[in-house]
Amino acid sequence: MPKSRESSDYPYIILNRRGVLKSLGLLGLAPAAMALTGIPSAAFAQSLTKDSIAAVTGPFNILGSQPYETRESWPKDLEINWAYNTTNEEILTKTAQPGSFDAVIIYQGEIDQLLKLDRIEPIDVSLLSNWNQVAPMFRDAEVIRRGGKIYAVPFHWGYGYLEYNADKVDAPRTYQDLLSPKLTGKIGMPDDPYAVITTFAVFAGAKRPNNLTRQEFDATIKLLKSFRPQVLTIHNYGDEIGLFARGDIWVGFPEYSNSLSKSRAAGAKNMQITSLAAWSYIDCFMVLKDAVNKAAAYKFIDSSLATQSQRLSTKHSLAFPVNDAAIDAISPELRYESSTQALANAPMMPGVTVESSGPDVPFQEWVQAWIEFKAT
Amino acid sequence: MTELNESFTITGVDGSRKPFVTLGVLPLLVYLFFMLAAPLAILVVFSFWKADFFSVTRTFTLENYSRLATSPIFVSVLFKTLSSSLLASCIAVLIAYAMAYAIVFRLAVWGPRVLTLVMASLLSSYVVRLYALTTILGTNGILNKALIASGLVRAPLEFLLYGYPAIILTLIYVYLPIAILPIFASLQGIDRRLLEASRDLGCGPWRTFLRITLPLSARGLRTAFAFCFILAGSDYVAARLVGGMNGQMIGSIIADQFGGASNYPFGAALSVVLVAGFALVLSGCYIVERATAWMATRSFWRAFAIGEPKYSRLCAMGAGVVGHTHAIKARDGMASLSELP
């Protein structure tokens, strides 16, 4: 007599649709539950070594600006997903969801903000084979450290320069030159509270333009407001190229790295730059605390510091390399002999505090003041 | 006829059909709840919370609304946004009506072709169209170069871009195709026999337009206006690209609050006030429309409507989008003039 299917000793596996869906659902819920309860998954628990970093494969999610997306130099064994940020502050909003990204590229001034939000962690540079190829002045810079720990690995650097159309105006040498009636409604500024307020703090004579006391901050904002008639428009980074090419603006500041070459290429042939009120920044890699593939982040960072990668990303982004061996890749009109010489004209800024209890005006107030300035 | 109406009524309220009707509406209700009511409710809740450093503290406060109310900057930007979108929508709807009317009634076989051309502009990206506009209107743009080359002007016209007129012009340019569609649909649906009957009964073109075409296309007109007004009022990219230092709209401030400033509660409060502003303006339009309809039922209006053609003609010339209201005023004016010795 044949055994029925209901018999307990009958080796019959029932694989129905509901069962499969239930199993898959549980599989999907497990990591989510682990993330919610704080139980570390395998990816979080891994301890990194140079060997594990070299062997890592799989997806790597990075958030950075588009010019740095140099696919030719990427490690071939990583599945790299590059998401863009168009403003500095987007880094804070786009990393709000834990696990969304493994690393970000942003200027060093964002360290305090990301630390305050508990989003980044110290980087063990001993795991980076190419760390020593970074020029000492960037490698040893205080601005990438907090409490003696390195939170940001320098990738590229640059300085905010004043760009002007030499066919229309003489080189502005002082702030007063920018107030010339000829320039009324002929100046453009980027939509970047950090960059613009820092520049106006320099104009206002602040000794530490990123660390403004209440009095200095008020004086800076007052100066900025008085400058408003000179400004035609506040643009996104990249839009100044069209503005210069169409002749809508004759002066723009602070502009960065690729603006000069691209404006000339777009038709504004006689664009020139001055270092009036210039200051420097370092665009850095930062590793997120809740990165899913931390080893991949280290692998990508290490690869990006190699001379060949730095040459490629310098050519692509027109930003300056932190590896001096790649200086020859800088566009001729901006090329310098050494980083030390180039940095002499544009001091490095540490970034703006986010602590509201200290003597300095916190960054949150910078942003609100900027929004109100734009809306006035 | 009565029987037909009765049978229709009975069928319409037939209890056995009700569950099907309810079930049919259910997906729409679910969609509206999750896509409209719930997000709006979340915004309202957020607007009463406090902002911390890139986070939200769930403590009830009216701080966001009091900040908004006491800040002349935000109030003026809100007013600027609503007024510019109102102006742009009115102009866009007027132009759209004329274009849709021409497509339906005047252009014959060319009508569908023109409509296709209008719709083709929607196939390109909105941002691309905006950048194209800056290339046309810029200081060294195509328009200025053409004007200089033709000798009409000596120097580039700089007011074409970066200012309030540029914002209005751009909003009209961007939302005109969207306004044409509903008006076209409503005009297309008008039974031509009504227009013929109107003319057969002695009405001229203007009177036929005011008494037949305009009322029958009012729904399309209303939809077009609502689309344009809401889209233009919440648009901030266009104003930002072409408005220069005047280009800050409330949408831009909201985007900044949800972006760089990460002050979600204040951004939510601004959003709630903007939605309320939309509701207020659209309600105002609805009230005007209802009042006009009510006035149309009054005896003096009816008397006017069948009155002397010369009065109607004169009144029609002064009629706008809601032509009835203007016509009543004009008619009253005429009546008082006729009473003079």
How would you describe this structure to a colleague?
- The complex is a heterodimer of chains A (376) and B (341).
- Chain A is of the alpha/beta class and 376 residues long.
- Chain A is 35% helix and 17% strand.
- Chain A has helices at residues 17-37, 42-45, 50-55, 90-94, 111-116, 136-139, 175-178, 193-203, 214-226, 239-246, 259-265, 294-305, 307-317, 339-343, 363-375, and strands at 58-64, 78-84, 103-107, 145-146, 149-150, 153-159, 161-165, 187-190, 231-235, 251-255, 271-274, 280-287, 320-321.
- In chain A, strands 2-1-3-12-6-13 form a six-stranded mixed beta sheet, with helices on one face. Chain A has a five-stranded mixed beta sheet with strand order 9-8-10-7-11.
- In chain A, strand 4 and strand 5 (149-150) form a beta hairpin.
- Chain A is globular, with a radius of gyration of 25 Å.
- Chain A starts with 16 loop residues before the first helix and ends with a helix.
- Residues 1-17 and 23-45 of chain A have low confidence and may be disordered.
- By secondary structure, chain B is an all-alpha fold.
- Chain B has two domains: 73-295, MetI-like fold (Orthogonal Bundle); 297-335, no CATH class.
- Chain B contains 17 helices and two strands.
- Chain B has helices at 2-12, 18-47, 63-70, 72-106, 110-120, 126-137, 142-149, 164-188, 192-200, 205-216, 218-234, 237-242, 250-258, 264-296, 299-305, 309-317, 323-338, and strands at 50-52, 55-57.
- Chain B has a two-stranded antiparallel sheet.
- In chain B, helix 2 (18-47) packs across helix 14 (264-296) and helix 13 packs antiparallel against helix 14 (264-296).
- The radius of gyration of chain B is 25 Å and the shape is globular.
- The chains are: A alpha/beta (376), B mainly alpha (341).
- At the A-B interface, helix 4, strand 9, helix 10 and helix 15 of A face helix 4, helix 6 and helix 13 of B.
